[in-house]
Amino acid sequence: MEITVAPSILAGNHANLLESMGRVIVSGARWLHIDVMDGHFVPNLTFGPQVVADLARQKQKLFFDVHLLLTHPENFIEPFAKAGADLISIHVEAHGDIEKILTNIRKVGKQVGIAFNPETAIEKIFPYIDIVDLVLIMGAQPGFSGQKFIDSVLQKIEILRQCNSFVRIEVDGGINEAYACQCIQRGANVIVTGMSFFMAQNPKQFIQQIESEKSIF
Ligand code: DX5
Ligand code: ZN
Q: What is the CB neighbour count within 10 angstroms for residue 30?
């Protein structure tokens, strides 16, 4: 199973996002994780579709992994699709008809993800596993970069991987190299890294090291 690291631009320089994205491109990472926050679903505000569109013009081959941390994601699928998202994840805790919103993401030609918070029961995800490309498991409380990984999340990865051997499992929040390794051993194959990527002495080596972890899946 191929491992992908998705550096999170939330931990970059918000006054110079192009420079932060450039560091991701130079590191050899293939994905860029973009957290869209509404100040309601989480107590923070980040990027609108225009920011994503402007970055997309210079994304080169980067795959834009857009994580919508929104209470009402339904009106934002098309704007982020047009802006250049390649995959859009919504939260299972969001309002609205979740299945319909996931179907809309597919209809606009994008890959589909479903995300859930650390305190949400894993059973809430089961109805959607077979209709998505990716399940995003939060490893820390959503909203801010640089938080501690919650160890009990590791078991959720294991349970999900036992239920489905094909879906991408992305883990997001509080991941350093040691936690990345533990997540991969349990079946995760997309690793989001915010602070640990942008603080890395050698970002290229950081990416290579995690992506070369051996997975038994
Ligand atoms: C947090 C975001 C994460 C965040 C991860 O709510 O969803 O993507 O950027 O950053 P780190 O790796 O620093 O926890
Ligand atoms: Zn995220």
A: 17
Domains and CATH numbers, the chain: 4-211 (3.20.20.70)
Q: Is 65 in the pocket of ligand 1 (CB under 6 A)?
A: no
Tell me the backbone φ, ψ of residue 144, rounded to 5 degrees: -140, 150
| Cα separation of the two ends of the chain | 6
Continuous H helices in the chain? 17-27, 49-56, 77-83, 98-107, 153-163, 177-185, 195-198, 203-211
- Ligand 1 atom closest to the Cα of residue 10 is 9
Place of tokens 């890395």: 200
Q: How far is CA 118 from the centre of its chain?
A: 14
Q: What is the DSSP letter of 8?
A: B
pLDDT at residue 6 in the model: 99
Nearest C-alpha to atom 3 of ligand 1 is from which residue? 173
Query: What is the per-residue pLDDT for 216?
Result: 84
Residue 68 has pLDDT above 90, yes or no: yes
| Separation between Cα atoms, residue 215 and residue 161, nearest integer Å | 12
**106: CA distance to ligand 1 center in Å?**
25
